[in-house]
Design brief:
- The complex is a heterodimer of chains A (497) and B (779).
- Chain A has 497 residues and is of the alpha+beta class.
- Chain A has 4 domains: 109 residues, Immunoglobulin-like; 60 residues; 97 residues, Lipocalin; 163 residues, Jelly Rolls (Sandwich).
- Chain A contains 6 helices and 29 strands.
- In chain A, helix 3 runs antiparallel to helix 5.
- The radius of gyration of chain A is 31 Å and the shape is globular.
- The radius of gyration of chain B is 33 Å and the shape is elongated.
- The chains are: A alpha+beta (497), B mainly alpha (779).
- The interface between A and B is large, with 105 and 102 residues.
């Protein structure tokens, strides 16, 4: 390869190399969290970055023989982290010298899931015996994404500045060599303008990238905040007529209220009359107001009056699917009962006894009845497909899982065969409620046709929806990973005779 | 071996930036030194090379060896690190006399166009001369040493990586300034007396002695950090501090006094007038100057290597067709067929699976291969080489067979000879892609592929030449436009050979090899517009005078010569419109998949087809027309252009092309690099379904919306950065070529630069948004 092309090619490879390499976190060092003697050891614990942030972190431990102060490379070191005040299982990582840059240290690199006060426990085992040390660290929120990569966005400004300086030098030299030709007033004005242009470009080259706030995601009702307690389903009377209302949280104390004539979906709603009202907050109260209805939501009640002074009175209800917790019948293949995720490829447990999203069954199934229970998270600030999204795939066709509580029930919302058929009625319950899918798959009348009937929270939402597949060809059941923490439990399949 | 020593020897930090900078520096120096050594081995002896490499090695040892991780635990190791940076690396680097080798080692265009004006600038030289004067260099050097040894600042550097970097930069920078007057690397011409170095070095030694003594004899630990960290081998912090003081004292004093001794010997032996001040005052060619070997006195005169050669610079020295194996393969007459056949098989598989496979896009070859892999590879191919897809285009293969039976004698209608039909088709495709979610519909994808085959067959079966490629094919137009910013182009190697050629086989063809069917006559061809890189001209040329040669990306846009088969780009509003469509299409296509835009479309509440149609009309028609029209009007007015508005808009529209290319690149490479593994389970399923071949159980765990690595975001931003700079530079060159004065050129450029910056900001905003992972299991 000749010189002209070799240089840029080398630069491209070098850039790629650095792009990968520089994204890794540097091990070791950082702030000293603890230095103490425990058992026969002298232990020092460092955390990095400083200040500690949610996201990628490094915990480095220097384990020395307390008497000789020599390093103990053969020691087994385990780091456990638990957010203060929580009772769930701790995060646990093994710290090794391989991970560390400074091989005196044992280091563990991992993602700290959230900010807060964390208890760090280090357990050391070696021929000198076992020891434990503890310290606490405060982790602040992660850096906004754009701040992490700001040099990558901002360097063109520097390049533009250098270019302008370069051009200034070039023109200055031309003027020096041929003063008569280029020393005119117009030329001097040009140079002054170019200086101004440098600054203009500099100011404009730095894009104003707005800081994107992290979207709140809650899987624990106790931590979900006051909005969670307000949102949900309400049932009662408006001017003497039976009504249901679905209060959908939008974050920051805002809600959309959908009034449904006749009652809640699947429980009296006429399927047509649906009225949306947005709430406002005044004097700490959540109020709704239209030309006909005014009222307030709070303390488990949605109360107010109509324009002609008739009463609006609805109470918060928590509906449960009639098939929730249904025991697997005889002959059922139990895919998940909370004890282990062995039936799932790379299956993982979350919160102790729930199945993590993003896995598929090791066994395949053709025809029969599937029962799945799922729980969407509370993401008040998320919208559309970014709100509690997952999916149950049966015969490679997705039955959408989504927090579409209160929405119309389109063909990409909860209960839909994604992209193909919307549910007869949107039976989606509020987030953090356990919901059920019961799916019956049977052979169709035509060769190679399968028909699926789906019950969402006990209500039939699809009847004999045609699937592509074969009654003789078992296919895995897949629980989609859409990046949202949707949990599953009590999954079983009863194969047809 | 003690465990601590063993750990020390194994603790090598990985510093890619530093390593890269050092290797690049060494490589550039070596390239230049090799050339200079061949010219004058006596002056450029190997000592220079080893000294320079030794300086780089000292920096490497200081920052990327076990010294770096241990510096935070032991003050003496930290001291060693600082000494390497300030006392060892700088004199070694200067002993390598790096100026000429580094300049000569740079590629010629970089050296003559970019570096030379800086080094020749009197301003820069005056500034450098003042900084390296003993009266400035010593205070700066001493100040850096004393300031960074203030406990508060030292601890700050230990706490913060950023400040630690600044500290190291200070030591290295002031070290370079300090040692420059002592070493006086060629071709420096100090104007002060060499006797000045005596107080210079003695003063440096005195201040060093005082600071070292403070550290050595202090009764308390000066830097709290070292009192807190665990002590290695039981060494007390105070002893560590004393050892650091001694280390600073003895080797540093030696470093100051040894040159002083050498200088004294030289001056005593009568070499006083060898030095500078007196010598530089003498007229050139005087006796004084000839006492040592003659050397050039003026930087300007001594830098012929920075002066552009009078001989015409070859367009490029790299030719892909001269690369062993690959070049030979490409020159083989059936090379194209070999590339087309595998793609044809893939196309057949895509069609078959699209029509008969699962309807879920991510589980179907037609939902994955075209929309994730083909698009990604196509754009990456355009980035690293050129129009590689057209070279291997499978749609041409059945056409070539059918042409034997179809009457292809008609001429393409004159009124369709432009890009307008292709623009309409391309706009329709971009609209349909969003409106019908083509990426999610294997069935539609299969039919599009089939329609492509049919259209190529019909058009080229009835019309002469490559009418389908030149006037109809939307993919071809995309490739033609983007390849204007590609690094390779089909070009004549030697214009003289073409001038003497009488047969013109490259356009007429010979021995059954067709000439250029797109009517591009190679001697007058410029750039890649309308070139399918089919290499027919390469095969037809009897003189083997056509190559696939390198050219600076987007350089074709800086000038506007008459191009064979195309004309002047500035006179082709249809091509400019195509460029605008593809630039704005890049942003619209990427924006259509980010959450805020999708949510905004949903919030409108209108039927999706209507929303997408309105969005497409706005993004693909209204916005390009309005923004480019406004920029052209303002630029024409401010820049006092006399040409028509259409002509101004047409010419400047090409400046947007590199940024548009960058947006396509960011978008498609994102999908490809984040989802390339989606092909594996689909291929496993396809093999089992169609051939009954088991390639393993498909792992369908969806990749959708997995957090994408920061490196990928950086890569996307990097593409946009480069696109922005290239677009701005292209606009600058276009403006300079159209205006007699710089101020007018800048005025004419300003609205276009603003448009480019706006598009760049939009692009950065888009890549920061959560994106739909199309081609992966979604929903």
């Amino acid at each position: 390869m000749q010189g002209t092309i070799r240089f840029p090619v080398v630069c491209v490879f070098v850039s790629c190399f650095m792009l990968h390499a520089s994204s890794s976190l540097r091990a070791d060092g950082g702030a000293l969290c603890l230095l103490e003697r425990a058992g026969g050891y002298q232990v020092a614990v460092f955390t990095s970055p400083t200040p500690l942030r949610a996201g990628p972190v490094d915990v480095s431990i220097l384990v020395q023989d307390a008497s000789t102060r020599e390093q103990l490379p053969g020691a087994r070191v385990v780091v456990r982290l638990r957010r203060r005040g929580t009772t769930g299982p701790p995060l646990e990582y093994q710290a090794t010298t391989e991970t560390a840059t400074n091989k005196l240290f044992h280091a563990a690199k991992f993602d700290l899931p959230e900010p807060g006060r964390w208890e760090v426990e280090v357990r050391i085992d070696s021929p000198l015996g076992s020891a434990r040390v503890r310290c606490e660290v405060e982790a602040v929120g992660p850096l906004p994404r754009w701040l992490e990569v700001w040099p990558w966005v901002g360097w063109p400004a520097l390049a533009i500045l250098l270019f302008c300086v370069h051009q200034r030098l070039v023109r200055r030299r031309v003027r020096l060599l041929a003063p008569a030709a280029s020393g005119s007033r117009g030329e001097r004005e040009d140079n002054m303008r170019m200086d101004r242009f440098v600054w203009l470009l500099l100011v404009l080259a730095v894009p104003a990238v707005a800081q994107k706030k992290p979207v709140d995601v809650f899987t624990d009702p106790d931590k979900a905040g006051p909005d969670f307690k307000t949102q949900g389903e309400y049932q009662g009377d408006i001017a003497g007529k039976k009504y249901g209302a679905q209060v959908v949280a939008l974050g920051d104390g805002k809600f959309d209220v959908y009034f449904l004539a006749g009652g809640l979906p699947g429980a009296g709603w006429d399927g047509k009359t649906r009225r949306r009202v947005s709430t406002t907050v005044a004097r700490g109260k959540t109020l709704f107001s239209t030309t006909e209805w005014n009222g307030e939501i709070g303390n488990g009640q949605l109360a107010g009056e109509t324009a002609d002074k008739k009463l609006i009175s609805l109470k918060r209800v928590e509906r449960k699917s009639p098939t929730l917790g249904e025991k697997p019948p005889q002959g059922a293949v139990v895919l998940f009962d909370g004890s282990s995720a062995d039936e799932w490829a790379n299956g993982k447990l979350v919160e102790g006894n729930l199945l993590r999203w993003g896995t598929h069954s090791k066994k395949g199934f053709a025809t029969g009845k599937l029962h799945v229970e799922f729980r969407t998270p509370f993401q008040p600030k998320a919208r559309g497909q970014g709100r509690g999204n997952s999916g149950v795939y049966i015969h490679n066709t997705e039955i959408q899982v989504l927090d579409s509580f209160g929405l119309t029930g389109a063909n990409n919302e909860c209960g839909a065969f994604y992209g193909y058929a919307k549910p007869v009625v949107n039976m989606c319950l509020p987030p953090l409620s356990w919901q059920t899918y019961d799916v019956e798959v049977k052979p169709g009348s035509k060769e190679g046709e399968l028909l699926a009937t789906v019950w969402h929270n006990g209500v039939k939402v699809h009847d004999d929806f045609p699937l592509k597949g074969s009654a003789s060809k078992p296919v895995s059941i897949l629980l989609q990973d859409h990046g949202n923490p949707v949990a599953y439990r009590n999954i079983w399949f009863v194969p047809s005779e | 071996m003690s465990p601590t020593l063993d750990a020390f020897l194994r603790s090598w930090p990985f510093e890619p930036w530093l390593l890269t900078a050092l290797l690049l520096s060494a490589w550039v120096y070596w390239r230049g030194w090799r050339v200079l050594y061949r010219r004058d081995a006596a002056r450029w002896h190997a000592g220079h090379l080893w000294a320079f490499l030794g300086g780089l090695a000292a920096i490497f040892l200081a920052l990327a060896s076990p010294i770096e991780p241990f510096a935070a635990l032991l003050l003496q190791v930290h001291m060693l690190q600082h000494l390497l940076l300030s006392m060892v690396a700088p004199p070694l680097l200067w002993l390598g006399a790096p100026l000429f080798p580094l300049l000569r080692g740079l590629p010629a265009p970089v050296r003559t166009y970019w570096a030379a004006p800086v080094f020749r600038s009197p301003l820069v030289r005056r500034l450098f001369g003042r900084l390296t004067h003993p009266g400035t260099a010593l205070p700066l050097f001493a100040a850096a040493f004393w300031l960074w040894h203030v406990p508060a600042l030292y601890d700050l550097a230990l706490r913060s990586d950023g400040w630690h970097f600044v500290q190291h930069a200070c030591f290295l920078g002031t070290g370079l300034l300090f040692w420059y007057p002592v070493v006086r690397p060629y071709p420096s011409r100090p104007r002060w007396s060499l006797w000045l170095l005596f107080p210079y070095l003695i003063a440096a030694d005195v201040q060093n002695t005082i600071l070292s003594a403070l550290l050595t004899f202090s009764s308390q630990v000066l830097y709290p950090h070292y009192a807190q960290v665990p002590r290695l081998g039981g060494l007390p912090a105070l002893d560590d501090q004393s050892a650091a003081g001694v280390l600073m004292w003895v080797p540093s004093s030696l470093a100051y006094l040894l040159p002083l001794f050498g200088l004294g010997v030289r001056l005593m032996s009568g070499g006083a007038d060898f030095v500078a001040g007196a010598e530089s005052a003498k007229p050139r060619g005087s006796a004084g100057a000839s006492r040592t070997q003659p050397r050039p006195r003026s930087l300007r005169l001594s830098l012929p290597l920075m002066t552009p050669s009078q001989a015409p610079v070859p367009v490029s020295s790299f030719d892909l067709l001269r690369v062993p194996l690959l070049g030979r393969f490409l020159k083989w007459r059936h090379a194209r067929l070999c590339l087309q056949l595998p793609l044809l098989l893939v196309a057949v598989a895509v069609v078959h699976d699209g029509l008969s496979g699962p309807a879920v896009g991510p589980m179907n070859l037609a939902g994955v291969l075209p929309w994730v892999h083909w698009r990604g590879l196509l754009i990456l191919g355009l980035l690293v080489a050129g129009n590689v897809f057209c070279l291997a285009c499978p749609f041409m293969l059945p056409r070539a067979i059918a042409r034997r039976f179809l009457p292809r004698g008609r001429a393409w209608p004159r009124w369709l000879r432009g890009k307008w039909l292709a623009i309409v088709l391309l706009a329709l495709f971009l609209w349909a892609y969003e409106a019908f979610s083509l990426w999610d519909s294997p069935w539609w994808t299969a039919w599009i592929v089939l329609a492509y085959f049919a259209a190529a067959l019909v058009v080229d079966g009835f019309f002469r030449g490559a009418a389908f490629c030149k006037y109809v094919c939307p993919i071809g137009q995309f490739n033609f436009v983007q390849s204007l910013a590609s690094p390779l182009e089909v070009k004549a190697r030697d214009a003289a050979v073409c001038a003497s050629c009488r047969t013109k086989d490259c356009i007429r063809g010979r021995d059954g090899i067709p000439g250029c069917e797109l009517h591009l006559f190679v001697p007058r061809k410029a750039g890649n517009m309308d070139c399918t890189a089919c290499l027919d001209c390469v095969h037809a040329c009897p003189h083997e005078n056509i190559g696939l040669v390198a050219a600076p990306p987007a350089a074709d846009l800086w000038h506007d010569p008459h191009r064979s088969g195309v004309g002047r780009l500035g006179k082709r509003p249809d091509i400019a419109a195509l460029v605008l469509l593809l630039v704005f299409g890049a942003f619209a296509n990427a924006a259509g998949m980010v959450a805020p835009v999708v949510e905004w479309q949903e919030r409108l509440g209108a039927p999706r087809l209507l929303t997408i149609t309105m969005f497409s009309l706005l993004a693909l028609v209204a916005l390009p027309l309005m923004t480019a029209g406004a920029a052209a009007s303002l630029g024409r007015w401010w820049g006092r252009e006399t040409a028509s508005l259409l002509e101004v808009g047409t010419r400047y529209a090409y400046a947007l092309l590199p940024l548009g290319f960058a947006m396509w690149l960011s978008h498609y490479s994102f999908h490809f690099l984040s989802s390339y593994d989606t092909a594996v389970p689909v291929a496993q399923r396809f093999a089992a379904d169609v051939g009954g071949v088991s390639l393993g159980e498909p792992q369908w765990v969806a990749a959708c919306c997995r957090p994408v690595g920061t490196w990928l975001l950086r890569l996307e931003v990097l593409f946009l950065d480069v696109g922005l700079l290239l677009s701005l530079y292209t606009g600058y060159r276009i403006a300079l070529s159209r205006s007699p004065r710089l101020s007018l050129a800048l005025k004419a450029l300003t609205p276009w630069a603003l448009l480019i910056l706006l598009l760049f900001a939009a692009g950065v905003w888009i890549v920061f948004q959560p994106m739909q992972m199309r081609g992966t299991l979604e929903g």
